[in-house]
Write a structure and sequence with these properties.
Blueprint lengths: L1 E12 L1 H10 L6 E9 L4 H4 L2 E7 L4 E11 L2 E11 L1 H10 L7 H9 L7 E15 L2 E10 L4 E9 L2 H15 L9 H7 L6
Antiparallel strand pairs: 1-5, 1-8, 2-3, 2-6, 3-4, 4-5, 6-7, 7-8
Protein name: CYTH domain-containing protein
InterPro entries: CYTH-like_dom_sf, CYTH_domain, Uncharacterised_YjbK
Organism: Lacticaseibacillus pabuli
Length: about 200
């Protein structure tokens, strides 16, 4: 179980910009993660200003509830996370349900979200690269959607706002990034789900 505050800046970028940035900074080896998003039919999680997902890595998974806030003109996220075994995560996804206990279950109850009404509604896979820098972390995401679509995103997670702003300005100048905010990953994953008749 963990509770973290995440502050971040994001921009959609092109494939060429992603390649250029990856060559200009000392990124660690890439890794893959698959996000499966959950909400109720009436969008109770979204209406509470939150997002709910199971994120599956190769050796473990996480159940995370994100609550968004605006502080210092920046998006701040409080994340409540329960670690899951990959087998358990796969079973939960297949059964279209979430754990009955844990930090996330407790927070959902506080928000008034009926856990038994939750269902998965979107999924995407990301190939992620991370670069630790003073006061912030630069992240490049290569996102793959269920309908075969793909996009790229630069993200700066930070503890020092000045470092993040300075880095975003440098990236924008050097790689001609126009600050395309775009919709969030959940909205993009939802838009790129194959239609079921």
């Amino acid at each position: 179980m963990s509770i973290e505050t995440e502050r971040e800046l994001k921009s959609l970028i092109t494939q060429t910009q992603a390649q250029q940035i990856s060559q200009a900074y000392p990124f660690a080896a890439p890794f893959e993660q698959t996000n499966v998003y959950f909400d109720t039919v009436d969008n109770a999680v979204r209406e509470a200003g939150a997002a709910l997902r199971i994120r599956r890595f190769s050796t473990y998974a996480e159940l995370t509830l994100k609550l968004r806030q605006i502080k210092e003109k920046a998006r701040t996220i409080t994340e409540f996370t329960d670690r899951l075994d990959t087998r358990v995560a796969d079973e939960l996804i297949k059964a279209d349900r979430l754990p009955e206990t844990g930090t996330v279950a407790d927070e959902l109850t506080k928000l008034g979200v009926a856990r038994l009404e939750l269902r998965k509604f979107a999924q995407m896979t990301t190939r992620r690269r991370e670069c630790e820098l003073p006061g912030c972390k630069l992240v490049l995401d290569d996102n793959y959607y269920m309908d075969g679509s793909r996009d790229w995103e630069a993200e700066i997670e930070y503890t020092e706002a000045g470092a993040a702003t300075e880095l975003m300005t440098a990236l924008s100048t050097e790689f001609h990034i126009e600050g395309r905010r775009g919709s969030n990953k959940i909205a993009r994953a939802t838009a790129h789900m194959p239609h079921q008749d």
